[in-house]
Amino acid sequence: MTHIHFETKSDKPPVFKMTRPLVDAAAARAGIDAELRLTLGSDLADLAPLRTMAGLVTSNDVIRDARFPLAELAARAPSLRWIHIIGAGIEPLLPLDWLPPRVTLTNNSGVHLQKTREFAAMALLMLNARVPQMMTNQMRGCWDQIFTPSIRGRTLAIVGLGDMGGAAAREGKRFGMRVLGLRRQPRPHRFVDEIFALDQLHPMLGQADFVYVAAPLTPQTRHLIDRGALAQLKDGAGLVNVGRAGVVDYGALAEALTAGRMSGAVLDVFDPEPLPAASALWRTPRLYISPHCSSDDSDAYLPQTLDLVFDNISRLVKGKRLKNIVDRERGY
């Protein structure tokens, strides 16, 4: 019998909280023939499942909890072969030197796609219509008629062409935009007109009306969008970040927004989170703050997550390759 354990935290928002009814419903949809033992835990109150579980489905904050035996995982969980993180980013878990060699780590990449596409469309239309700038004017009681062109024909530069960046590229093409993309390996992308390598970032940004940041945070991408990169942008350009906060120098971004060199920005990711009330970002003009909730569907996120989990459970018991394996070297 294969033992799969689901561990959550009681203080998680409902959109991320795994429950017995949700797990049972996903198990029924999967219809796996193999005998499974499914257990659920909360707040690491009981560590006994470690002794027998073959799979662990959980979140970054559980793994990083002081009660989780990270340094002793190989000895405390001798049957463990797989960990699934119910989020796309695993930056808090890096480096992965704690992960036993026999254990495969997977993530939730792709589960966000529909909501990600919707947010990308909203954010790009907001920037094109200068909504962040109008919000600042509203708070100041300033009547300033801002007339803008159609978004069709404008240039969108995407930094990171994974699932989230690809979703933005698709929406950009749907709007009739010219789409540029930057990726680690400059392979073609069906929704991108021109691909740029990492060392071509500045030439790409110089053509952009809007920049959409969807890259993971790695040593190579930390502050990739720095003061020098922002200086390449056209006057009045806008920026969206749905990747990780550390990819963009938010201090330099705030300066550009305050000086009026950029027309607006939409940020969904921050460091730390929650964003402290004292942060200057709350008072930065032309900035729309989305508190890291852009792509998590309140109805479908967990059911779709658990469908992915049970697909991988089926693969695990059959000895097949799992979906969404995290590369230990790249960290995503």
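(ticket continues) Second input and output from the same batch:
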Amino acid sequence: MERELERVREREPQMDRYDSLLKWMIERTRERTEGKVLIKAEEVPWQQTRHTMGRHYIGPDQWKEIGAPGWIIARTRTVANYRIGKHTHRGGGRLLYVLEGKGCTVNNGVRLDWEEGDLETLPVVVGENEHEHFAEPDRPQSFYVLMFWPFMEATANETRQMRESPDYKGPTDKDLFRPADFVPENARLKGLDIALDGPPKTLLDDLFLRRNQWRDMTSKGRWVIRKNDQRVELNRMGYYRWFIHPAFKDVVMRQILFWTHELPPGSRSGKQKHQGSRLHYVLEGKGYSVVDGKRYDWEPEDLLVLPIRVGGVVVQHFNSDPEKPARLAVAEPNWYDIMGVDMAAGFEQLENCPEFRE
């Protein structure tokens, strides 16, 4: 009697930690490559939260769907009331571009006045930023709000509510409010008074010197960057008004670069290749952008997200209106000081805008 041969199923290959890491990286690349590039304003509903009325374009729940993860982007608006909610957060790292209106912010007891077209910064501070925004009564006011979580997480950032918006009618959740120990005892510790008048004698003291210089700059630098103080430059990409640039040493927050870009009627920007994670919020006008050969049409309040891709992205913007200008509010993380401008993709100008002359 012949013995029947039993087929033994081959053992599944075991996934070790290294292979697991490779698969994770490959999946992240796929998500960024296929991620969403254009977010239409009509797709983002208005929502009254305990803090303010707002449109939330990008948040952590969408990072796997977006070509440039890590951003937290919103647009707020108040109409009848003079203030929104009050909250506090450890660390800092927020930009608020004033889209309309006039008013002030009280941050840690200091009043910061702003008006349409200004950029308010809430920088990284020791302890917390406790702030509240006030607008002129019976006049619409709105912010374009930008946060980049990788920088914020590095400072143990956390936001808690202190007072709800007068327009909020929902239930109060006390777990979301600022506890008495929100600023821990470690934050209040003070060490030796290290005053360095001359060159530091050790590399450790060099860090303390840099700390002292940063604290001095934070106390004297610009928290509100006023539109009228920033000149417009014509460069290879078009008409830029820089608010935060790596060369600016007098602004208290530099981890996010910010500028506005104006396209003349019927014109176009230069064409550029760079690494992604650059955001374009449409302030006014209609047009389109070509990103890696694909066209994306935009109009006011849309958000164009340039994805992070291997080899970078190639982008050019076009104003489709022959009579009116288009304006974009542009932001990107300031990796340049620590990782270089090429960012592993290359920073290249492929074509100048029509208005630029050598």
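Agent notes: The CA atoms of residues 238 and 273 lie 15 Å apart. The two ends are 93 Å apart (CA to CA). Closing as not reproducible unless the customer responds.
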